[in-house]
Design brief:
By secondary structure, the protein is an alpha/beta fold. Helices cover 32% and strands 21% of the residues.
């Protein structure tokens, strides 16, 4: 991990600093803690600014749009201290871009607040700083935060599975209680409603079913990203990192005894670890920025037994001939007899190095075998690309999706909006129960996979569109062409990333006429509470549609032996008394025609 990638490093620059002359800055940045500034060849830490005076409420998406679209600044990285922080750090690729940003931002008014922008010092290397503190007795010993790989990756494995479920049920109850408190404190008009629901539902703002267990508790993971490095003894390992860069240690430990990793992955890791130990190419060091092998991603299919391997490498200054030699050796290793026994059928090569401006993914090259693997959910076959999102516990994903179908209760007259649809897994599972499915996702490759999956399964009532759901929800609703007078209905299925939905998407969902039922699937329930509250806020200038009401919640355990849990919540609202055709819906948000998708 590079120092600029660790959010904790930005904490060092809490105070405003005066504009620095470049030569003075360079003189000041001497010593081990700043050696990385010369060692990396390039780091945007050299061209960083601090931006202060930000408004109390703003979204990171809004900020990025202001900086990169409206003001046309060439930002390289935006470092957020915490949501709603009044100051942030912004990095650029050169001094010219930094100076242009300071000139444009300093004194600029945004949301009624005058911004202040000035140069910021590079952050010290947290690894070096932490070790230095420990060695001089100024801080805690280095091993104070060291944990075993079992405690880091499977912190609940010491409990029986029944005890794990009880703990997770209790934790989700706490989340729902917090949701109720947020409703009570932020929406006074809902207090009588919240009190009534609490009396009915044992102190919770909605009904809460018992947690659904995972059908498979051990060896369930179908994807793992393994680090490549060295253990405490200096032996090259492929496994999980047990510390963190900011805590001062980078050791990688064996995953051989972890309960949630399947045997085929363990065999693949052991095979590649042996290869790395015998290879003339060294492992990558986040401390020195030298070395090559960085990461091993392994995906597997519970349905077919196929194993996909993606080898992540920093090419450094390797020639094309040396790269080809490395790739050939990787293929030879993974297609050996042990590789065949592990089920390896697809091999890819990923370049992991500092990304260029405008680059959001690492280039992946297919080296051997099939470019994809396939898995099954609820009887449907899904193609899985190297970078595609797919629920990591396939058997439990079937439970999750069936829960979503059960609470949504669609009919043959129902149209489904699949928001953040990914490769179409949820929407395609709904397809047999409804009239049509319309899905949207910002990742174009995911949409390509979704279309392939629909065709592969012979499903003709699903359409998928690439684009930002924040802008396209109303267009999809128009495309659905719902006719309420013919008993047709509309249901939204929302399965967002951990950060939840942007307020723009919430606004469009609230303002959509005819959308009277919404199923929210959350992989990070704590982070989703704000979304849930916004769905239930009274009508306002921005949220003109009638509020939703949380009716029922169900927890599903997709992650045995870990503290993580999925939560499904059904929201409903009363249908309008005299609904108009949805094409006549009035809305204050951007509405791009579906034909332009």
């Amino acid at each position: 991990m590079e120092p600029e990638k660790d959010a904790a490093t930005a904490v060092e620059a809490k105070k405003e600093v005066p504009m620095l002359d470049k030569q003075d800055d360079t003189k000041e940045m001497k010593g081990e803690e700043y050696a990385y500034l010369d060692a990396t060849g390039f780091t945007s830490e050299l061209f960083k600014i601090e931006l202060r005076g930000l408004p109390k409420y703003y979204g990171i998406g809004e900020l990025k749009k202001l900086l990169n679209v409206k003001m046309k600044l060439s930002t390289n990285k935006i470092k957020i201290m915490k949501p709603g922080s009044p100051f942030i750090f912004i990095c650029f690729r050169n001094q010219e871009d930094r100076e242009a940003a300071i000139k444009a931002l300093d004194g600029y008014k945004w949301k009624g607040k005058a911004l202040t922008a000035f140069e910021a010092k590079p952050a010290p290397d947290p690894l070096v700083r932490r070790r230095k503190e420990a060695s001089t007795g100024e801080g805690e010993p280095l091993n104070i935060k060291r944990r075993t790989v079992e405690a880091s990756a499977t912190s609940l494995a010491y409990l029986t599975y029944e005890e794990q479920l009880k703990q997770k049920q209790s934790e989700m109850e706490n989340v729902l209680q917090k949701f109720g408190k947020e409703l009570w404190s932020s929406i006074p008009t809902l207090r009588s409603f919240v009190e009534k629901e609490r009396q009915i539902n044992g102190g919770l703002p909605c009904a809460f079913d018992s947690i659904r267990p995972s059908p498979m508790q051990d060896g369930y993971r179908n994807k793992c990203e393994f680090s490549i490095g060295k253990d405490a003894s200096g032996v090259k390992r492929v496994g999980f990192r047990v510390g963190s860069y900011s805590n001062g240690f980078l050791e990688v430990e064996s995953i051989a005894h972890l309960k949630h990793i399947p045997d085929c992955m363990k065999h693949t890791v052991a095979l590649f670890e042996q290869f790395v130990q015998n290879s003339p190419f060294d492992v990558y060091s986040a401390e020195t920025y030298q070395g090559y092998f960085r990461q091993l991603t392994v995906r597997m299919s519970h349905a077919t037994g196929q194993v996909m391997v993606v080898v992540g490498v920093h090419p450094q200054t390797l020639s094309e001939e040396e790269k080809q030699t490395m790739k050939a050796a990787i293929v030879e290793c993974l297609t050996s007899e042990p590789g065949k026994k592990a089920g390896i059928s697809s091999i890819h090569f990923e370049v992991i190095q500092k990304r260029q401006q405008g680059q959001y993914t690492n280039p992946i090259e297919h080296l051997y075998g099939e470019p994809h693997i396939e898995d099954k959910i609820l009887g449907l076959t899904f193609r899985i690309s190297p970078a595609a999102f797919f629920q990591i516990n396939t058997p439990a994903a079937e439970v999750l999706y069936q829960c979503a179908i059960d609470v949504a209760a669609p009919t043959k007259n129902t149209s489904i909006l699949d928001i953040c649809c990914g490769t179409g897994t949820i929407g395609l599972c709904f397809a047999r129960h409804c009239k049509q499915v319309l899905g949207v996702d910002i990742v174009e490759q995911a949409i390509a996979d979704a279309k392939h999956n629909a065709e592969k399964n012979g499903i003709e009532n699903c359409k998928f569109f690439a684009g930002n759901s924040d802008d396209l929800i109303m267009s999809l609703i128009r495309h659905a062409n719902i006719l309420p007078d013919q008993q047709e209905s509309l249901i939204a299925i929302v399965d967002p990333p951990r950060a939840g939905l942007h307020i723009r998407s919430i606004t469009q969902l609230r303002n959509a006429r005819g959308l009277d039922k919404l199923v929210y699937v959350s992989c990070s329930p704590q982070s989703a509470i704000k979304n849930w509250v916004d769905l239930m806020r009274p009508c306002s200038k921005q949220l003109r549609g009638e509020p939703f009401v949380a009716k029922k919640a169900i927890a599903v355990d997709l992650f045995p032996h870990t503290p993580h849990t999925e939560l499904v919540i059904l929201f409903e609202r009363e249908p309008e008394s005299n609904p108009q055709h949805l094409a006549n819906s009035e809305i204050d948000c951007i509405d791009k025609p579906v034909g332009e998708l």
